[in-house]
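User: Here's a chain of 181 residues. Predict its fold as C-alpha cells.
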Amino acid sequence: MQHRTLAAFVALTMLLVSTSGCLGLLQGREYMESLRGEPKQDESYTPLSIEHTFVNAQQESWDEDFKIDSAVTEISVYFKASFFLSDVISDDVDPRYVDVSIKDSNDNEVWSKRTTTTESTLEEKIEPQENGKFLSGDWNVFIEASGGGLAGIGEDSFLVTITVTRTCIEFPQDDGECVTL
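Assistant: Prediction complete.
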C-alpha cells in the first residue's frame, strides 16, 4: 500500500511540475538532483602487461604505446626476469638479456632497466615533471630481449607491467563507472 502511495505521489508531483512551465522544470530538476547521492573521487587503474616465455633460442622486440592524459596521477612499473641457470652460465658464453625502456611523448627516456640475471623488482614509480603532472600524449615502452629454453626442462621469461593510475569521479547512479576528470 505504501509503495502505491509513493508512486502516486511521485506521479502527481511530476504532473504538477510539468504543467507549471519553465519554473516547474527548474523545480523538478532540483528535486531530482536532491534524490541523487553525492559523487565521490576515486582512482582507476589501467595496466599494460607484456610477458614472454622463450621456448627456444631467439631474440624478440616489442614496441607498445599507451595514452597518458591530464587525469594521470601515478605511473608505476613492475619488472621481473627469469633466466634458467643464470647463476651457472656466464654472460660471456650466453648473452641472454632483457632491455626495457619507457619514453614520454617528447621521446625522453623516463625509465629503463637492463638485466642479464634472474631479477624481480618491487613496483617502481615514474616521477612526474616539475609541475607534478605527467606529459600528456602517447608514451612508449620498447623491450628487446634475448633468451632461450627447452620445453619441460627450463625456459627464460620476463614480465613488464605498467600501471597507469587516473583520478576519476564516481556517481552513485552509474553503478561503479568512474569518469575521468
